[in-house]
Design the sequence.
C-alpha cells in the first residue's frame, strides 16, 4: 500500500486526524519538501510529534528514481507525505500512477491547500478563480522580464473577470522563498496600479492578508514565508466587503471592480 498524505499548511499539527493515523501506522514514511514546505515545523518536529522516522527525498529521488518508495509499498505499508495536499503537484500524481502500474494499492488522505486558504482568508469566492500561475525567480527561468506563462494567465483571467492565484517560487535547496513584496516588485512594471492581495503564512496562528496596488505591496515587509499573491478580478459585493474588512483594501479600487 502507498498512502499519499497531505501535512497541511503550517506545522506538525496541521495534518488531519485521518492523515495522522495513517502516518503513524505506516511501516516506512517518505517525504519531499521541494514543492512546498512547512515553515512552522522541521522534520525533527514531525518525527517527534508523530513518533515516526521520516525519510526525506530530493527531486531526483521522487521523480527519477522512486524505486525505494515503490519497493517499500510493495513489501508493506508506505506513506508519502508532503506539505499542503499531496495531489496538487503532478510529481505526486506521476508517482501514484507508477505504483498503480506495478499493482500497488494507493490511496490519498487530503489536507488543506494554499488555494483553499487563499479563498478563505481573502473572502474571495473559490469558484470565481481562474487558472493559477507560478511566478519564478529571475534566475530560475533564465529570461528577461516576466515569463509569458505568468502574464498570459493574468491577462486572460482579468479579461474574463476572474481572480488569479499567483504561487511564489520556492527553491528549497537554496533556502530561497519568494516574498509577496518581491513578487509585487516583479509585477509592477506591467501591473503597477492593479489591485493585489498578499496572503502570508496561511494556516499559521497569525496569517497576514493585505490588499493594495501592486506598486505599494512592493514596498512592504511581510516577514517570514510562505507568501502568495492574489489578483482579484470582478467582485461580487460580498467579496468587495470582505477585501475591505479583512484585507484593508482601498475603497476606490474595490468600487472599480464591482461586477
Sequence:
Amino acid at each position: 500500500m502507498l498512502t499519499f498524505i497531505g501535512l497541511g499548511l503550517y506545522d506538525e499539527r496541521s495534518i488531519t486526524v485521518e492523515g495522522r493515523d495513517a502516518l503513524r501506522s505506516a511501516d516506512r514514511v517518505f517525504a519531499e519538501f521541494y514543492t512546498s514546505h512547512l515553515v512552522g515545523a522541521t522534520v525533527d518536529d514531525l518525527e517527534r510529534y508523530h513518533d515516526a522516522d521520516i525519510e526525506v527525498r530530493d527531486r531526483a529521488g521522487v521523480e527519477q528514481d522512486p524505486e525505494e518508495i515503490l519497493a517499500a509499498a510493495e513489501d508493506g505499508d508506505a506513506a508519502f507525505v508532503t506539505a499542503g495536499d499531496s495531489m496538487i503537484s503532478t510529481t505526486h500524481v506521476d508517482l501514484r500512477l507508477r505504483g498503480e502500474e506495478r499493482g500497488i494499492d494507493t490511496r490519498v488522505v487530503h489536507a488543506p491547500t494554499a488555494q483553499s486558504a487563499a479563498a478563505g482568508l481573502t473572502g474571495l469566492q473559490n469558484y470565481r478563480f481562474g487558472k493559477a500561475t507560478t511566478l519564478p525567480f529571475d534566475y530560475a527561468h533564465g529570461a528577461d522580464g516576466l515569463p509569458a506563462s505568468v502574464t498570459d494567465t493574468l491577462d486572460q483571467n482579468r479579461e474574463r473577470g476572474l481572480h488569479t492565484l499567483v504561487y511564489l517560487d520556492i527553491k528549497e535547496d537554496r533556502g530561497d522563498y519568494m516574498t509577496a513584496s518581491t513578487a509585487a516588485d516583479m509585477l509592477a512594471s506591467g501591473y503597477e496600479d492593479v489591485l493585489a492581495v498578499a496572503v502570508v503564512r496561511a494556516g499559521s496562528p497569525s496569517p497576514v492578508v493585505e490588499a493594495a496596488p501592486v506598486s505599494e505591496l512592493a514596498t512592504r515587509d511581510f516577514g517570514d514565508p510562505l507568501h502568495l499573491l492574489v489578483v482579484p478580478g470582478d467582485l461580487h459585493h460580498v467579496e468587495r466587503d470582505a477585501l475591505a474588512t479583512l484585507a484593508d483594501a482601498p475603497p476606490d479600487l474595490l468600487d472599480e471592480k464591482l461586477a
Q: What stands out?
A: The chain has two domains: 2-109, 114-256. The chain has a mean pLDDT of 94.
